[in-house]
Amino acid sequence: MSSYKDFTYDSKHFQDLPVFIDELHEKGxxxxxxxxxxxxxxxxxxxxxxxxxxxxxxxxxVKVNDSYLEGQMWPGKVYYPxxxxxxxxxxxxxxxxxxRKFVKFDGLWLDKNEPSNFVDGSLNGCGRNSxxxxxxGVGVHGSILGGKLFEKTICMDAVHSVGKHYDIHNLxxxxxSNVTYRTLAIIIPGNRPMVLSRSTFPGSGRFVSHSLGxxxxxxxxxxxxxxxxxxxxxxxxxxxxxxxxxxxxxxTQELCLRWMQLGAFYPLSRNHNSLYSKDQDPASFGNEFxxxxxxxxxxxxxxxxxxxxxxxxxxxxxSTVARPLLHEFPRDxxxxxxxxxxxxGPALLISPIVAEGEAAVDVYFPNGIWYDxxxxxxxxxxxxxxxxxxxxxxxxxxxxxxxxxxxxxxxVTTSLSRKQPMGLFVAPGEQGTAKGLLFWDDGTSYxxxxxxxxxxxxxxxxxxxxxxxxxxNFTLGTFPxxxxxxxxxxxxxxxxxxxTNILLNDLxxxxxxxxxxxxxxxxxxxxxxxxxxxxxxxxxxxx
Length: 543
Hints:
The protein has three domains: 1-211, Glycosidases (TIM Barrel, Alpha-Beta Barrel); 322-400, Immunoglobulin-like, CATH 2.60.40.1180; 404-541, Golgi alpha-mannosidase II (Immunoglobulin-like), CATH 2.60.40. 41% of the residues are buried. The chain has twelve helices and 34 strands. It is an alpha+beta fold.
């Protein structure tokens, strides 16, 4: 930004920014820029500021006493757009369109949209009335921060198109999210709008992802991030994450490593900290730290097809992506108080280290069969605690018996990963059966489910006697790219006996395309090169 002003960039110190963004796009990477919900009301350092001039002409700013309410933020004196005003939509679209001509962003991060204010209420203060000073105690011991409802935000008697700020304060971010989502749908046509918002409200998940806000680099805040993410899934905002390694204070190397391992399994994963804290990107801690973090991120990328499918189900069925154990095992009272283990969907159990100096985790396993994701071996049958020592600094991941996870060989970006072979992780349950689902589309287009431009694949596994069969069935819409996706490998767990023969669609697999590990009882298939839009009938024969 130039002088912290929205819809500007510092062309003096960052003159090559547009070229740099073009280079990122050539490498298949995306760019998200930040917007604060304010427009600088003074023109210092710039003779022409369209965001202010057009906004004044359209009359789209929040008012108080028939004048525009003036607060203070990073640019200095500021006005606040009224996102309930119908005229703000063409205004916001115009500003984003004009700015994108110079900075070709792919998504928008809406920050400080509570809305935040560096002064209380406005530069002129707030009127003494029952909206700004209600006749009741609010918050802890009858006060919020300094005892005022307008503490570090705008006056409660400020006027929006739909009413007083007192009535819509908690909805300000929601209205901005709605407008921004629709703006991106217009200016990047055909693409799924990517909006991240710090302020949300139930229903915001239709438009935006969510950051839990500026946390501290402490173990307490690492731990509290997990219930925060689970709660927002309940609110219908599944694409959510905390600032990995913390936003404020200086993080220790151990804390940041454990947080990176946990954060790799936030639905929204990003490392973000204050300008005034020391660097906490992985490279700042050295090569060994980078290697440890890469293991977690590599595993996240391998599991992206499963995560993507969970988001599809959240979109179409309203289910959660990240969920507490008690949602899957409500009759198991031991799960009711578990706050620091959680699930991706019904099948992947995530058990991070959440305390300083620990190298192992007492993992609680609900009833069933549970498999080590990395090795494929059975870890626990039946419910109970199991002390799990982390291998090579990895986070504990266990797959629930009875499920099949779609996976993929990862690459360094999601766009490159999409060109990699798909796989299946088969975790048979107590009855020797397992099932799974894969939703796949082009990854960027808008409303692919509604327009039926996708692939939906079901996988089923059943073992009976001396034979096991894995079958796939699929629904294919108008999505020709699906014919370029193929299965390359599979991991099939709980195989007590080495197979004597393996058939793929009635044709035997050569010995170089499968291996069997007696100790872990895992069968691994590779070099399959089987197009995903052709049926799979894999038959495993035992003596």
